[in-house]
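Work through this protein:
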Amino acid sequence: MSRVGKNPVPIPDKATVEVDGSKVTVKGPRGTLVRDIHPDMTAAVEGQQVLVSRTSDQKKHRALHGLTRALIHNMVVGVTDGYMKELKMIGVGYRAEIKGKTVVFSLGYSHPIVLLPPDGISISVDPKQNTIKVDGIDKELVGNTAAKIRSFRKPEPYKGKGVRYVDEYVRSKAGKSAG
């Protein structure tokens, strides 16, 4: 049996979970998330927890069992607490600023990079610390948006310049030796 899948998902007092066939709806103080789960998986609300079960013991179903439970758990955490990723810009002249709904990045290219955050994602910029905070209720969307911002200028291993996660460690390489 899946070790992750057999654990029940606790539902906090602030959240409600509704299961309609293969459609799971989670409502909480930060918003509402809806996701379709695989038809071979069944989710059921029992008291203050959600239990996920599978139809057979095939390898595919065992993998989907843990995945489905993790996705529902991420939805519950998202609508109650939310998710946040923090990025740091390292480099001379690297900065970001919010103009209306868009975020404009100056990352050493000949042109500014303009990002329109997807719905449900809020981006805040701290110009003093050169940090960017990506906040939202959908874990997948927060991670994808942060990864997209990081991809604008990945950290390079010689001087460490670029956009990186705050807790990310970039191994630095030795440069050319003066001869």
Observations:
- The mean pLDDT is 92.
- The longest strand covers residues 83-90.
- The helical segments are 59-80, 139-152.
